[in-house]
Every structure is written in structure tokens, then in C-alpha cells.
Amino acid sequence: MATLSIVLLLVFAFFAAVQAQYEKYSFRSFPRQELMPLDSAYKYALDQYTNEKWPETVEYLEVSLRLFRLLKDSEAFCNLNCSSVRLDDEQKFESFPELHVFGNIMKRAQCLKRCKHGLPAFRQTMPSRETVEDFEKREPYKYLQFAYFKSENLAKAVSAAHTFLLKHPDDEMMKRNMAYYKSLPGVEDHLKDLETKSYEMLFIRAVRAYNGDNYRTSISDMELALRDFFKVYDECLAAAEGSREIRDFRDLYPSIADHYSEVLDRKVKCESELTPVVGGFVVEKFVATMYHYLQFAFYKLNDIKNAVPCVASYLLFDPSDEVMMNNMVYYQYHKDKWGLTEEDFLPRAEAVRYFNQTRLQLDMAEFSRQHLQSDDEGEVLQFLDELLAADEK
């Protein structure tokens, strides 16, 4: 028994409070001593990993993660703040649509140049595409969890393993590591996503309140979760407009289209990348799910005027959902009883914006894949024939 007690004490000592690497992170005041090219920091960390220098591995992997977040936050900050910049005298360009478009592009580029000049993230050499992809796939956590383990910091090792598995649920090696961790006492408290977003915590809190019949609290937290999700989504879209390697030379419009197609692919991924995983399960149709909870909570409080727009919002994303369709029929049948107008049956504005934006992005990305990424010789010849025929007329 004495031996067992000692073992348990050691295990609990290892499971100290997990301090995520971002506790030291600040977009506004990033430590000057940590500023360095992301490629250099990451390569140095992996070199230390190969040489089994675990404290140095941990230090530079954590720095690398902060540098990557700084870069993404800086991209989002500048692109969001410059997104509405336009020409001062647009009217004089009315007869010259091409000049109008490129004039606004140049104004936005000027704004971005000024913004980036003042931010430390852009004073470093930009990382390679391969490095960026590693961080987007959470690859650093694969190395970080083992370095934590070898440093006898099991709490952080568990969190790092969990963070990696959320992106790679079928990784056999990490699944075996997690199986070992779960055999130890006190592990459950450290199954944390180190990349979790604030809207995920608000969503979980809202669902718990909902399950406890605390509908007012659930509505309050779910509304905050929605607002925060849309903010983070806009930041993700803005960050997708960041730096890009130019690998070939093309004519003006194909070059612009090629660049924008790459940006579009990254923007389309924002929806899935921001979808939370709760209790090991992906929250499918996340935005729609939030409206589902809201409509029922409003209904339970007899606030039908706010419940109905949530039903309409949900049906944007899942128009064939029978339960929600029946709810809508029910509300329409009793609309006079509750004093509902036709406007009450419209989806909420932020839901319409998000729905339209995501669908248009998907449509444009699909157009790019079908018509721009590889030349179809038959299609090209037919198009040339049509141009020549039109020219002869």
C-alpha cells in the first residue's frame, strides 16, 4: 500500500496544471527575444528533438507555435482592417470598370503595406509552404507530446496528444500513446484541446445550461458563441489572404485567378477547421446546431418571436430536416395567436450572410477546379473556334 501511495503521488505530481503555450502569447506585445523566422525556430526545435534534447525541444516548439499564431493573427488584423479601403473618388472611374477594380486593389495593397510595415511578424522571413502546412495540420504537437513525456510533464503530454488526435484521429502511434495515458489516474482533466477557441467553450457552456433546463443562460451563452464564431470565421477568411509563394509566371488575369483560387481553397477550409469536436465527436452543421438550440430555448421561454427566425435560420443549412420543417408549420399555423408577421419567418441576417458567403465560396472554388486548374485541350480548341467564328462576323 505504501508503494502504491508513492506511485500515485508521483503521478499526480506529474499532472501539474497544464499551462498552454499561449498563456505567454500576446499579439500586441510579443516578446522581442522570441521574434525569429518561423522556419528557423521550427527547424531548430526538430534538430533538438533528433538529438533528444527535450527541454530545448519543448522551448522552441512552444515558441514556434506562438510565432505561427502571431503570423496568422497579424495577417487577419491587416486584411480585416484594410478590407473596406476604397478609392477616394470612385465616381470618375464609372466608365472604366477595369481601372475601377484595380484602383481599389491598389488602395487596399497600399493599406496592407502600411499595416504590415508596423507589425513585427512581417519583419521576419516568411515561412515556407511546407512549414505552414505542418502547423495547419498540428504536426508540432506530435513532437511536443513526446518531448513533454520525456521531460516528465505528463499533463502537457496528454493535452498535446489530445490536440494532435483531434486532427488525426486514426494515427495509430498517437492512439497507443493516448491509451497509455488513459491508464493513469487523473488523466481526464487534461484531455484539452490546446488550440481551442473561445466560442467552443461558450457553446459547451450553453449546451450544459440547456440540458439543465436553464434556458435563459443557455440563450445568453449560445448568442455569445454565435457572435464569437462569426468573428473568428471572418478572421480565418482574412488570414487566408496572407503571403503566397509565386512558382511560375503567367499572364495577368490567369495569374490573379490562380492566386485567388489558392486563397479560396484556404477560405473554404475555414468552415471545417473551425468546427469543434466535443467529447470525441465532430459537431456536424455547427452553425445550424446553434440555431437549433436557440429556437428550442426561446420556445421553452414562450418567446416565439425570437424562436421563429432561429427555425428559419436552421432551415437555410438543412432545408429537409423534418423536425424543423414541422416546427415551422406549427409556428405558421399559430402565427395569429402569437402575433407573428411575415418578417418574423425570415432567417436572421448573420445566418443569411454566412450561408451565402460559404455557398458562393464553394461555387467559385468548384469553378476554379473545373475550368482553371488544368487545360482541357478539347475545350480550348472549341473555345478558339467560337472566338474565330465571332471575329469573322
TrEMBL record:
One of its GO terms (biological process) is collagen fibril organization. One of its GO terms (molecular function) is collagen binding. Keywords: Glycoprotein, Signal. The keyword Glycoprotein applies. Residues 1-20 form the signal peptide. It comes from the Eukaryota. One of its GO terms (cellular component) is endoplasmic reticulum. The keyword Translocase does not apply. Residues 37-334 form the Leprecan-like alpha-helical domain. Pfam families: TPR_leprecan. PANTHER family: CARTILAGE-ASSOCIATED PROTEIN, PROTEIN LYSINE HYDROXYLATION COMPLEX COMPONENT. Belongs to the leprecan family. This is Leprecan-like alpha-helical domain-containing protein.
